[in-house]
Amino acid sequence: MSITDDITDSGFFGTEGGDGAEALDPAVIELVDELLAQAPGGREGLIRVLLGLQQVFDRVSWRVQELVADRFGLSPAQVAGVVSYYPQLSSERRGRLIVDVCTGPGCFLCGGEGVLRRINRAVAERPPIAGEPTLAVRQERCLAVCGLAPVIRIEDRVRGVETEAAAGDLVTELLGPDRRPEDRR
Question: Is 119:101 a contact under the CB 8 Å cutoff?
């Protein structure tokens, strides 16, 4: 059994309930210390520890960022700056598939904001089903392919989306048909 089995990071600052004063799971602290022991010193070690935590928890919560900051002798703001700078890191759970929607000037003028709203709505209308892929939607300022506007990026593939309806269909394409049991009242 690995140390990452059966441990969770519940977050803090009240984002997942509570007042943020509750203690971290001791297994999370042990995992941070284990990753720290394996990492080189300095900034490179910090990034390796954060990437390891991102891989285990699908995010690096604020609470864990504070712990990492303490272990590295940094301020929480310095660690938060690293987490917010690198796209591989996130303080929020991201989902297994990541869709970036461009809302830069070119895409905005061609309907990018409507595409973003439609994708978010389609995702919200599909509550997650255990074992099925999840989708995280992020807004990007510019994806630098204005000729295809409005543009989305799925993982590392960029594609244009002609209509809001096509954006909604994209969710079905990525996640498959909605297979929730029908309401039989």
Answer: yes
Q: Which residues contact 5 (CB under 8 A, 6 or more apart)?
A: none
- CA atoms of 3 and 111, how far apart (whole Å): 47
Q: How many CB atoms lie within 10 A of CB 16?
A: 12
* Domains recognised in the chain with CATH numbers: 1-93 (no CATH), 97-175 (3.40.30.10)
Distance CA 87, CA 52 (A): 14
Q: What residue type is assigned to position 40 of the chain? A: P
Phi-psi region of 99 (alpha: psi -120 to 50; beta: other; left: phi over 0): beta
Instruction: Please report, as a single letter, which amino acid is at residue 96.
Output: R
Query: How high is the pLDDT of residue 125?
Result: 82
Which letter does DSSP use for residue 11 in this model? -
**Residue type (1 letter), 38:** Q
- The 3-state DSSP class for residue 153 equals strand
d(CA 7, CA 144): 40
- Residues 22-74 have pLDDT tens digits of 467 888 889 989 998 988 877 778 999 999 898 888 788 889 999 999 999 99
Two structure tokens written together for 46: 């910090």
Sheet holding 151-154, edge to edge: 135-140, 97-102, 151-154, 157-160
